[in-house]
Amino acid sequence: MDNxxxxxxxxxxxxxxxxxxxxxxDGVDFEIKRGQTLGIVGESGCGKSVTARSVLRxxxxxGRIVEGEITLHRLVAKQDGSKMTDLIRLTEVDxxxxxxxxxxxxxxxxxxxxxxxxxxxxHTIGDQIGEAIRLHQKVSKAEARAKTIQMLxxxxxxxxxxxxxxxxxxxxxxxxQRAVIAMALSCHPSxxxxxxxxxxxxxxxEAQILKLMRSLQQELGMAIMYITHxxxxxxxxxxxxxxxYMGKVVEEANxxxxxxxxxxxxxxxLLRSIPRLGMKARERQRLASIRGTVPDPYAIPKGCSFHPxxxxxxxxxxxxxxxxxxxxxxxxKARCVLYKQ
Amino acid sequence: xxxxxxxxxxxxxxxxxxxxxxxxxxxYVAPPWKLMWWRYRKHKMALISTVVLILFYxxxxxxxxxxxxxxxxxxxxxxxxxxTAIHIRDTEGNFHMPFVYQHKRVQDPQTLQIxxxxxxxxRYPIEFFVHGFQYKLLGLWQTDIHLFGxxxxxxxxxxxxxxxxxxxxxxxARVSYGARLSLTLGLVGVFLSLAIGVVLGGISGYYGGxxxxxxxxxxxxxRTIPQIPLWMTLSAALPATxxxxxxxxxxxxxxxxxxxxxxxRVVRGRFLAMREEDFVLAARLNGSSEMRIILRHMLPSxxxxxxxxxxxxxxxxxxxxxxxxxxxxGLRPPAISWGVLLQEAMNLRSLALxxxxxxxxxxxxxxxxxxxFVGDGLRDAADPYAR
Amino acid sequence: xxxxxxxxxxxxxxxxxAVGAVVAxxxxxxxxxxxxxxxxxxxxxxxxxxxxxxxxxTTAPQPTAVPAAKYQEAPMLADLVKAGxxxxxxxRLPKKPWVVASYEGxxxxxxxxxxxxxxxxxxxxxxxxxxxxxxxxxxxxNLVPRVLESWEASKDGTTWTIKLREGLKWSDGVEHTTADxxxxxxxxxxxxxxxxxxxxxxxxxxxxxxxxxxLDKYTAKFTYKKPKPMFIYNxxxxxxxxxxxxxxxxxSHFMAKWHEDTTTDKAALEAEYKxxxxxxxxxxxxxxxxxxxxxxxxxxxGGWVAKNEMAKELFVMERNPYFFGVDPEGKQLPYIDxxxxxxxxxxxxxxxxxxxxxxxxxxxxxxxxxxxxxKSGEAKGDYKTVMGIGAGHVxxxxxxxxxxxxxxxxxxxxxxxxxxxxAINRDQVNQLVFNGMYKPRQYSxxxxxxxxxxxxxxxxxxxxxxxxxxxxxxAGYTKKDANGIRLHKDGVTPIxxxxxxxxxxxxxxEDAALLVSKDLAKVGIKATYKYAERSLYTAHYTANDIEAxxxxxxxxxxxxxxxxxxxxxxxxxxxxxxxxxxxYTNPQDPNAVEPPKDHWIRTIWKIWDEEVSVEVDPxxxxxxxxxxxxxxxxxxxxxxxxxxxxxxxxxxxxxxxxPPGMPNDDPTGDEQFCSSETYYWDDPSKHMx
Amino acid sequence: MLAYIVRRILIMIPxxxxxxxxxxxxxxxxxxxxxTSYVAQLRSMGDNIQQEAIDAMRDRYGLxxxxxxxxxxxxxxxxxxxxxxxxxxxxxxxxxLIWERMGLTVVLAVFSLLVSWLIAIPVGVYSATHQYSMPDxxxxxxxxxxxxxxxxxxxxIIMYFAQTQLGxxxxxxxxxxxxxxxxxxxxxxxxLKHIWIPGLIVAIENTAGEIRTTRANLLDEIxxxxxxxxxxxxxxxxxLIWKYPVRVAMNPFFxxxxxxxxxxxxSITLMSVVLSLQTxxxxxxxxxxxQDMYLAGSFLVLLSTLTVVGTLISDILLAWVDxxxxxxx
Lengths: 341, 387, 689, 329
Prior knowledge:
The structure holds 4 protein chains of 4 kinds.
Chain A: E1 4-17, E2 20-33, E3 37-41, H1 48-56, E4 63-77, E5 83-89, H2 98-103, E6 108-111, H3 125-136, H4 141-154, H5 160-163, H6 173-185, E7 191-195, H7 203-220, E8 223-228, H8 231-237, E9 240-245, E10 248-254, H9 255-260, H10 265-272, H11 281-285, E11 325-329, E12 332-335
Parallel strand pairs in A: 3-8, 3-9, 6-7, 7-8
Antiparallel strand pairs in A: 1-2, 1-4, 4-5, 9-10, 10-12, 11-12
Helix pairs in contact in A: 3-4, 3-6, 4-6, 6-7
Chain B: H1 25-29, H2 32-42, H3 44-61, H4 63-66, E1 87-89, E2 95-107, E3 114-125, E4 127-137, E5 141-149, H5 171-207, H6 209-224, H7 227-236, H8 244-275, H9 278-285, H10 290-326, H11 338-345, H12 348-353, H13 359-382
Antiparallel strand pairs in B: 1-2, 2-3, 4-5
Chain C: H1 7-17, H2 21-26, H3 75-82, H4 89-92, E1 98-99, E2 112-117, H5 124-130, E3 135-137, E4 143-145, E5 148-153, E6 159-164, H6 178-189, E7 211-214, E8 219-223, H7 252-255, H8 266-275, H9 281-287, E9 304-306, E10 314-319, E11 325-326, E12 338-343, H10 347-355, E13 361-362, H11 371-381, E14 383-390, E15 394-398, H12 405-411, H13 414-423, H14 426-434, E16 439-440, H15 454-457, H16 465-474, E17 496-501, H17 508-522, E18 526-531, H18 534-542, E19 548-549, H19 578-585, H20 600-611, H21 618-635, E20 639-643, E21 646-652, E22 655-656, E23 663-664, E24 680-681
Parallel strand pairs in C: 1-11, 2-12, 14-23, 17-18, 17-19
Antiparallel strand pairs in C: 3-4, 5-6, 6-8, 7-8, 9-10, 10-12, 13-21, 14-21, 15-19, 15-20, 16-20, 22-24
Helix pairs in contact in C: 13-16, 14-17, 20-21
């Protein structure tokens, strides 16, 4: 059976603004296997969230997918009970059409970044979760409510029967995020897109949520696209990792490889910027942020977009020629002139 | 949309490397007013409106120069003349510099209606800088030069861009003179309400607490009383013996008594937002005095908001003056304001027989629109994310 | 450019076009139908011009009564009679009803007459429909009996005997007799609580009331110590309680219960006035009990009675079933069943009603400024704009008693006043503001008036700025300031005064004032017109704080009826002699100032007091009054500008009885002059709404 | 919730008290009083009014007393007997004059409020969801014109054209035969036939602003994460817009019902003077000009009370629809 769930090829999503064109995602390729967790890492503004929204086809205006393919391999139950895969070219369907809407929320679900703001303040969580259920499953209101309570229970909601009628402002951040996760999982998606689901939470809650997500993944067998800038979380959650910078994937590898053998200078810089247990004091002093900030999206530097900040840059090369994305070793790709196939 | 935050066009982070050689560079080094101008420039309607307003205020300032005739000069032979048609081509098809033909007046003996027809000759060429009635330019220089007109003067033939009223007075001249009172009343009123608004709004926002509660209650209370009935009541209390200047001032004060509440809310809101800002905290830790903090640090940072709010309030003032004068509670003749002119024009006989006397109504609408557009533009320019 | 329509052209045109009613108006009514033969042959012009002073006796023969069997009543009353709710018509009418013919032939019963009013303060509009009383004018301004059957005065004018119509009934069916008059004489006029002061109209020049005697149920006699030649005018209009004093026509059977001396239940009266917030019964009596439009149960003698209080959107009046008049065919009047007054809040809405044809007949509130508008709406609104002749003038009063010393000196020079009069371009004001409809003239009786005096009308009205300038120079006002304004004799103060008026911006009168100011500026006098709210204006003239005023003048059709107060300087709201007027009325008044010993105003007062007001013979009285007017023509106390105001009256096509060319003045009832009971609809069925 | 309502009502009392004090003070401002101008008017029209009648009126209206006594008597009458004093010009108790006019003002205000919401909300939503499209620009321009043209100008122009071009009579709220008629179904129908033009005129003036507010509020909301999440759920665009951001964007709308009412009353006042409508406007203007003080004062108090009550209702409504506010209370 085909093990691939999602393929993204040469995805380009641009924002057309008065100030110019912001190339938020500028040629991204990756693939997610069923049940696999893919981490997408990068600083703010590198295009990770836009990638996620491109997959869901909810890129906000004035953004638009200008090039590339996104293919979803959907499992469809045949009449005899066996399953077959159905390839859907997401980039070619109407983003607000019924097909796409049918996929959103059921096949692919989103857990957004800010649990505080991601729930409507004037509707109960039961209403909002139930709505998702009734949207994709033919159930009555009562059934939807029962299912909602069941989902809340699943995500570890204390007293879900009472809490189902609570308004978001009555819940703590952690509970809100659990509610959002419950909503996302309510239709058993095959792909869960988690966009920094824990950034807004405190460390303890973050740990709980992460744990919850892992256990649910095992239980429900879904794939997760886990977007984060936190390498620690990446290590904890994911199997494969892609690193993005300025709308491009600069490196892709298994999680161990990334941590132990980063190829791209940007990945190395990222890794250096996090403290690690067992770090020697001398090394700890070298813990440093990457210098500078992400450049202006309308003014992507010529050549390698990372070169102004790169400490390994080669003058006359990095600022002139754009590096190609190559598989440096099996299963480990990078985009840097330092590497050759 | 966390990532999209970065799509914001203007990030003024200071520590950017010199190596970034790109088109966006100037953005980072431009002073704030320049940034505002760049943003403002994009608002096309605001730009057009700015030009319109400059024109209007020019007329208001130099109305004696702009008006070809004395706005109070009545002339029987020019009673209710429709706007004069300006020709550049005579009946034989020859082109000339712009000129007007002579009006011939016919009065219907039955209905008493006056109609004017054009006689194809003689031609009266329109000229610039012609001699007309005497006046003092800006109250300083005695002169009789007017921007445009026909040199023959009003005795034979008039050039009435907006027609004449029931006494044969030139509407264009009257609208121009009216601009002086109406447009400045808006400005003066707004500055007056700004003064009250900034002080009270500032106290409310900066000190907060009990002051805030009291001032907020007062604002809510004032706004509870419907404006027009309140203004009506206040204007009815203005003695009718007041001179034009005194009435003008009185009306301005009355309008400001309500309008300051809007200013105060804007100021308070800005203060509240800014009170917690780091730079204010820093200044305070530095030991700066409160006054210095307000004047040196806070005020400049929200000046743009105030200017935008001011601009958006001027049209309200203009409309209020118009409304009050219209029902006879505002300015009164011999003052010439747009409201006074409208009061004279707002009757069926004018609508039916000489609709052009509604011209001041259009002046009101255009200036109100222009102020709105300019205000919108300024607001967007001051803060593109605040609505 | 100079093709102005003259006022005369216009009057002629509108006369020719007005429904062909001119003929009817000019010609005397058909002889057979003439109930009241006029004393003199009707003038063959559209404008009645004859000179008759108040008749001291009914000169007309008593009308012959129409046989009772021939009386006809309106269908709406006939139904009530059938239902037994109303006595038959012959029992409702007096033995000898008042017989009156419409000015445009005999009419038909029925229909509604729609009018407009603007609130209780406008109560005179409706009131003038119903307040013609003892006698009324025919179209030649002769006074003929109405409520009264006849009257007679003694040769010396001290004794007046009046005869009431037998069987004439109040609107509630109770008979109107001399008992009512006696009740009024005792309980109202001579009750010090109700009437603490002296009601001058009922007193002789020595402030003494007449002795009243009821000779029988229908005959009464008033005996004065001094001549009271104008006695009969007291009740030409009145009797409806439009003012605080209704006079003898008081329904005693109704009023008795509001009066402490006559009520049968004092406790109830006390409870009632206290409930209504009055401190005493007499205050309640005076305040409330007499206003017919708020106290609709109060019976009166008018043609229509109020069906609701006036403080409403729609004030409805319905025919008085007991009205005492019939037409020559014996039809009980009024012809029209119902009169409605609809409240308007803005002139524009009223004008819309006019042009929409929703006003059937009205002069009140119609202004000459809107004439072109009315004219343009005639076809669509199905009405005609009928022109009458108004008594109003456009005029300016220079306060000869102003406290401003320099101005006082200035105004008090005859040559200055004449110069000011010559400085005014009356034609321009007339053309620009009034479409040339007025006539340049001084304030004076109009040509149709018995007291018309041409010399005053045309005194110093020529536009002659040169003469004006020369006179002013000759008067010693030669120096001018930088702005070209003449200086007072002190050599420093420019001659500048404020003309106060209550006319708001955009009104024709205000426009006229602005034009006159411009004219005066040309001869070096600065005059500024200033709008003053009415109460403020009152405060100003009451305190003699006024320099000049812009208030026209009317009551020029029959100037003697209001006792020529304006000509004597006693109307302080036309403030040409405020402080002197106060002195004349009450020398103790704090603002009173005695005029100089040999001042011409004393001549005016002397002529009035010693000649006009005691002269019984009409011709001599008029001659004496003209002597008074001659002082005016010489001294020019008042700067008149325009007069003989044409008055537009909206008359719906099909509405009959009001021809063009009628006088329009307050003492002659404005558009009710032709006896509104005789107005009728051509086809009442079309006007039932 | 109940406690919240009670508390809000209690807050109203001092506000209303203050309103009455200020109203009374304001109408005392002009020099002179009603009777001076009344008597002057009578005399100028040849009315021979007697001093007794004037004294009777002065007595009756308590004009001789100190201002504060007048005030307390007035307030006492209102609170204890619903007696708003006497109108001097109309010579009737104020309470007999004002209620129908207040009623019609409220009807007109609410009617125009509903009309402009019915227009402003869908149009504003459309404008916001189709930002920078042609219809969005068109609506912006239209709404600016609405802002720029005052209601009284519309009123006169519409009145003129309705009358001359359409043959409709827009002066007044009733046909003549229903003016003094009791309230029947036919009278209601007659009112509806007349009210829509003035209602529309007031709506035009205010709708413009409301479209802009809706648009701006919705633009604020429409990019919020909860909208995106709702979209990610697979909701249709229409449903998600109307259920989530519109609902939230409407909150400030409802919370300013009181002020919106006040604005409308302002427009209605001016417009009614032009159209001669039987609302409070023309009568208040007259009362002010003739210094008919109890009448003028009562109107000011009642109109302000209307706003206060409007605010109360909107607060209660808001507390009912928005759980967050309920909690704070």
